Please model this.
Amino acid sequence: MDVCTSGVEMKAVIQRVKKGAVRVGDESIGKIGNGFVILLGVGTTDTAEEAGWLARKCAGLRVFEDREGLMNLGLSDVGGEVLVVSQFTLYGDCEKGRRPSFVEAAPPDKAEELYGEFVRVLREQGIRVETGRFRAKMVVEILNDGPVTLILER
Model:
């Protein structure tokens, strides 16, 4: 795996799902069927190049079962959709004390820009993408399938 020189990397928690949804208050803002819910964290040194690499990597993952029950199929093979939710808490450092430090998380403006780039590149791959609302308090519903959960960093 390629790593940023600072050790801080863009992070994605990918969950294969039967369905996923996100709400802000009483408003449903994104909903998908079969596919991935991706929780995306952006670090202080991340770039648009890293966001694109990570989006293409997620789009190409083969974690859906074929007829033999082997994980050989990707999103495009199964008509999968993606729900991407910004998750700065992926950068919570709990090494010291009991309250996480978020100093390695990108500032909001940069994080929103790279979150948008990640989503744009996923859509460029021909994938239907729904999103959460950046900087909003959200309720995320995930019906994990498998369960299959992967963590990617770039």
